[in-house]
Amino acid sequence: MGNIKPSPIKPTIKFDLLNKIDIRVGTIEKVEDIEKSDKLVRLIVDFGDHTRNIIVGMKKERDNPKEIEGMQALFVVNLEPRKIMGELSEGMLFDIGYADKIVPVLAIPEKPVPDGSRAG
Description:
This protein is mainly beta and about 120 residues long. The chain has one domain: CATH 2.40.50.140. Helices cover about 5% and strands about 35% of the residues. Strands 3-2-1-4-7 form a five-stranded antiparallel beta sheet, with no helix packed on it. The protein starts with 14 loop residues before the first helix and ends in a 14-residue tail after the last strand. About 15% of the residues are buried.
C-alpha cells in the first residue's frame, strides 16, 4: 500500500450537525452504464423499503464497475436529489480515497446487515 500524507483534520463541528447526515447501508443491485459520459454510472440501490438511483463517477476508477453488484455499501441518503448530466441522483455513495486522490474503495459493513440500517 502506498503512503499518503494525511490532510489536516477539518474544523470541529457540533455533534448535532453530524446527526443531520443520514448514512444508510444499501445493496447495489445493478450498475448501469451512462453512455453519454466517460466516467458516470448509475447504481440501482436497495435500501430495504425502496430503491434509489445513485449516480457515481467510477468508470475510470475500475476496469469493471459491475464488480460491485450485490455488495453492500454506505450511502448519504438525505441530500437533495440533483441532476447530473441529465440523470437524477438520489443520494451519494460514501467511498474512501477520492478526496485524497487515490483510487476510491467502497465503505462497506464488515458483515451483512439489513438494507436501510443507519450508520452512526
